[in-house]
């Protein structure tokens, strides 16, 4: 990397930090603004935030590694995310908004009681530790490949910045930085692709030199059976993962909650086919990467074709994607701890100001612990093993019972807790105990089937047992005068947030165009930067005309 690459990364990090700090005051007014951005955020902002939160740097390390090794298999896997988003948009997202709950934890507390809420809160916080760590490690890997800075130092620096602005600005800081990060990441990928294609000799040369079956959607490890099992998992994860539930509940109505998921679906239909090209092209250029070396294929391709400055832009894009997924989860766990643990269990009379500060402190402590876990990931077999195994073991067990309860009045606290405990115990045993004690090791397909199929089977059983009983569902509260005033304030905050987005992405577009002007083979960067500037101007114009 050149010195200008480090300058680009530093400027971008400063921009993201400043955006987060802009919302420090407005996000501190009350718990509604800090925790759910007033519950009136524009659906397109939440949709972009949901997408970029899902599409982290782990995508470029985990799926990029699979794309390098197996080709279109990576796209086949990611199609499950598009289909899962579609199912969520049609059947699930609006039901979360309909509950009237601020968080999934609040829904559990009202529907199933405090003890059940505590059970799921504890497990979800533990799960979130690993999910955040699983996105911090890949970006540390990217920075390590590009610059030689150790993974440990990279994780600590990047994680520290993410923790700082998430703790300062609350959900609005998360949403706005997510949109800006989406723009930067998209720009970075669009600049890399034409240069990578040129280096590989064009599409025809790439296609003819690719390994056999490189353009198949399935292979022996990631079979069509795995596809359908992973689709079921993705639907449960997109529809029930607590940080993503927050994207459906923080918009104004049920229709907009569906729009959030539909936008996610549309982006996931298009983007993976574009964004997985660089590591696939690098397989033709350099087919010699082995094992976990393939985790760096994406960054190696970028370094090979990009001039000084633009490597820093691509790396900033990868960092931004990681920041998006991490800040989404950090904000959610802070909300849950402050609102559903600190207040409801220990200090029921705590003021809004106190709860905001509790959330900030917990964000810092939780974030520090995730960084420690991220640094230890290489000791558990690498990021691909950790991501897929954690998903198979915990995803269905934690989130499937909650989604099921949105549709059924026959589930009780005992039934959903039983489904979660049995599924977790059996999945952990088959992953850790059975291979060593019984000599039985499940492949990806069976591991995923067990993780998502077992809790669903148990829930079906309880549907039959409780078929003559109907339990009270969550009822939406009537809006109070205080809540009405908060909603009016949130409209003003929306306008301010969109203005920050417009200004920030216009500034990003100008910076990209400037880098392109000063670089060899920089024409693509100039075009992309100009397009982003026009987009920022259009957003600014639209918000002014709406006032």
TrEMBL record:
TM spans (from-to): 6-23, 43-66, 72-93, 119-139, 145-165, 217-239, 260-277, 297-315, 354-377, 383-404, 416-438, 444-465, 496-517, 523-544
InterPro entries, sorted: Na/Glc_symporter_sf, Na/solute_symporter, Na/solute_symporter_CS, Sodium:Solute_Symporter_SSF
Signal peptide from the UniProt entry: none
Keyword Transport part of the UniProt annotation: yes
Compartment(s) where it occurs, according to its Swiss-Prot or TrEMBL record: Cell membrane
Catalyses which reaction(s): iodide(out) + 2 Na(+)(out) = iodide(in) + 2 Na(+)(in)
Membrane association type: Multi-pass membrane protein
Alphabetized UniProt keyword annotations: Cell membrane, Glycoprotein, Ion transport, Membrane, Sodium, Sodium transport, Transmembrane, Transmembrane helix, Transport
UniProt KW Transmembrane helix keyword: yes
Main subcellular localisation: membrane
Family: Belongs to the sodium:solute symporter (SSF) (TC 2.A.21) family.
Name the record gives this protein: Sodium:solute symporter family protein
Native organism: Olivibacter jilunii
Lineage of producing organism: Bacteria, Pseudomonadati, Bacteroidota, Sphingobacteriia, Sphingobacteriales
